[in-house]
Amino acid sequence: MPRIYLEEKEPIHFKFEQNQDDFVVDEIGLSWKGSGNFTIYHVQKVEMTTWDMVAAFAEYLNINAEKIGYAGLKDKHATTTQYISIESHYEKELKKFKHPQIKILGSTRHSRSIRMGDLLGNRFSINLFEVNQIQAGQIEKLARKSEKLGLPNYFGYQRFGRDGDSIEQAKKMIEGDIHIEDTKVKKFLISVYQSTLFNEWLAERVQISRDENGGKFKLLEGDLYADAMGKLFTPKNPQQKDFEAQKVVPTGLLCGRGVYRARGRAGEIEAKYDDGFLYEKGLRREAIVFPKDVELKYTKDFDKMHISFTLPKGSYATVFLENIASKEFKAKKIKSTTPLHRH
């Protein structure tokens, strides 16, 4: 099922490329204590994956890469900043660290290593090209609308790997038709399976919202909500006011064990995209996200629109752009083959 969006309209055509000048991502970190046995480094990398950047530090220090903590994966074809943690006794050695694609911007201390997910969100700054004056107005209007009404929190195409057949592989592995030895590949295929089911569920909910609620995301009886702290709850009545005030958000299922399921009408729809036999731990994911601090600048002479926005962790910049363009992007149209989602 394709990714569809709340507003049914003609697509807006623009181009963007992932490269170090036109695609910039800045990780928004947590508050670090300023003391402890670990040093938190704020690092900038250019045209390299997070794994390659971590490997460069590990090789320089002659340590296992697993001893270096990071909160999320950042794109390869971009200029990105993020936080990593290394035991503090390596501080002296790292003062001499030099790499053509990596720069240490600053450091502080903390009581523990950074873990996956230790971030608040990401700030994106992207250049859109081939944008005429009329389109510039449309893009601004739709970006502002997304700030107010939110956008469906789909997994972007990057989640599913370079090969289009990864979901078929995932299904065969889960059904026992093929055996995968590699733990990383196995984990990746399970996440592809969960993410595909989530996207299909979300597309149905978006279609219901179009049909029954004039394009605003429709809350259903039995929905499970997350509050600002991520705590899950099921209210007796859908919290329309709180949702519109961005205090609570309906969630969807990443199927697996040990996770709450929706009930009522929401549960009936969710059940179509569930797999109760999956041994992987299940999760719930926000169905809608609200971009923050959207800034736009149009350069008429160059048909260029610069757009900056902040998304919560786990959300995709390309999905925000799809929502504006009202069309689904494919991997071949973008240079990057690394994830735009943020853990």
Structural account:
Strand 8 (225-227) and strand 9 form a beta hairpin. The protein has eight helices and 14 strands. Strands 1, 2, 3, 4, 5, 6, 13 and 14 form an eight-stranded mixed beta sheet that branches. A four-stranded antiparallel beta sheet has the order 9-8-10-11. The chain has a two-stranded antiparallel sheet with strand order 7-12. Helix content is 28%, strand content 24%. The chain is globular. Among the domains are: 31-117, TruD, catalytic domain (Pseudouridine synthase, 2-Layer Sandwich); 152-289, TruD, insertion domain (Pseudouridine synthase, 2-Layer Sandwich), CATH 3.30.2340.10.
The overall strand count is 14
Our count of helices gives: 8
Radius of gyration, taken over Cα atoms and rounded to an integer in Å: 21 Å
Q: State the shape.
A: globular
The CA-CA distance between the termini, in Å, is 24 Å
Kindly identify the CATH topology of the domain at 152-289. Answer: Pseudouridine synthase
Question: Topology as H/E string?
Answer: EEHEEHEEHEHHEEHEHEEEEH
The CATH fourth-level homologous superfamily of the domain at 152-289:
TruD, insertion domain
CATH class of the domain at 152-289: Alpha Beta
What multimeric state do the chains show?
A: single chain
Provide a concise account of the structure shown.
By secondary structure, the protein is of the alpha+beta class. It contains 8 helices and 14 strands.
Keywords:
eight-stranded mixed beta sheet; 343 residues; Pseudouridine synthase; alpha+beta; 8 helices; 14 strands; globular
